[in-house]
Amino acid sequence: MTTKVTRYRWVILILAIIVLGYACLRLFDMNQRMSVLEVQRLSRGPVWFVTSVEFDTLRLNNTLLKYADDQADSSDVQTAFDILWSRLDQMRRGVTLETLNEYGVDLTVYNRLASLLETTEDRVAALGPNDAEQARALVGAFEQELGDLRAAGLDVLQASLTESNDIRVDLVAIARTILVMGLILSGATFLLFVVFALDSVQSRRSLREQKALLQEAHAADIAKSQFIAVISHELRTPLTSITASLELLKRGIRTQSPATAGRLVEIAEHNCTALRRLVNDLLDAEKFESGKMEFDFQVVDLSRMLERTIESNKAYAASYGVEIVSDGIEPDVRIKADAPRIDQLMSNLLSNAVKFSERDGKVEVNLRTDTGRAIVSVRDHGRGIPQKDRSRIFERFQQVDSSNERERGGTGLGLAIVKAIAKAHDAGLTVESELGKGSTFIVSFPLAE
């Protein structure tokens, strides 16, 4: 899971980098277009210049007419003439001239006007108090250019309107680009947020996993300590009994009666059997854990096997003051199984039930068939299993109450072996329990075809 999250995080991060790179390119392009528009905005002066030239020409003519009617003096004429000349000179230089050339406007009329101003400059400067006719002649010369000036101005205005429309289109495109860039940057921000969120989730998951591993290690350490304590008890008790029996036999080999000697041998034999069973449980648990346990499946009579197992475990139960009783065993129930392993499974269930039964209690065994399965139940009337412990009782070295295990015997391997054998036989395994009333272990095997 962690590897998958890491892979997705890198994919999202690379995608976010690509999106941001694209956004940067688009913003650079938009900056270039804005620079062009800024130049175009600054170059819109030609409309003002051409209209100003036309206006200043009209004003010069009007001033000349007033001079002819003796309503203005020569200085007024000279001022109007200088303003027109200055305006025309500015229009024919720099950015304004370049823009007019880009518009494709015919500049002939402005060139003629410049030539006219050059040829009339001395005449305007020489105007005296009685030069009304000279002033009217100048008015006629400038009036000839007014029509062409107006036509040229309209051409410049039309070109400017076309340019303004292009600018408007570019501005709309830029506005859309800004909108798209906003969406792209929002998407990139979201992707980066997802990356950081995944990092956060992964960090929290790693912390939880580390905590779980620490808890498991702690639980395993506790289980190990309990297991060592139980094994020490399980080994020490029979070894002590065997040693004591052999010591008594050694000391009284000549004086003790055969009955007494036979009893001591029986005790030693019983404890040797217990030791062998303990070692076998340890070896079997390891084989099941490593998957090296071998099975020999044959069709067997489960009914007869169960009866034999009950009989063989009655003496063990009696040592605890418990009786194993048959609560109904359906005859001739056949399953496909490894007989020794089934006997081991049943013996472990019975010994477990016996150990958790009160003295003078009973363990009830039942076998029935239902919907193609053979169902075996083993019920005790002990203290029951708490709900929180039912999920772990089938794990190795797990015990509901380790103090009781040391009192009554057991390694915590029996139910783990039961679970492994049941799984190998495709059998279901459940437990029903009620505190203070006992527990029922149920195993269901597929019937043999």
TrEMBL record:
Keyword Nucleotide-binding recorded: no
Catalytic activity: ATP + protein L-histidine = ADP + protein N-phospho-L-histidine
Domain Histidine kinase: 230-449
Protein's recorded name: histidine kinase
Transmembrane regions listed in the UniProt entry: 6-25, 178-198
Lineage top rank: taxon: Bacteria
GO MF terms, alphabetically ordered: phosphorelay sensor kinase activity
Keyword Plastid: no
EC number: 2.7.13.3
Pfam families: HATPase_c, HisKA
Any coiled-coil regions, as ranges: none
InterPro entries the UniProt entry points to: HATPase_C_sf (IPR036890), HATPase_dom (IPR003594), His_kinase_dom (IPR005467), HisK_dim/P_dom (IPR003661), HisK_dim/P_sf (IPR036097), Sensor_HK_Regulatory (IPR050736), Sig_transdc_His_kin-like_C (IPR004358)
Keywords, in A-Z order: Kinase, Membrane, Phosphoprotein, Transferase, Transmembrane, Transmembrane helix, Two-component regulatory system
Top enzyme category: transferase
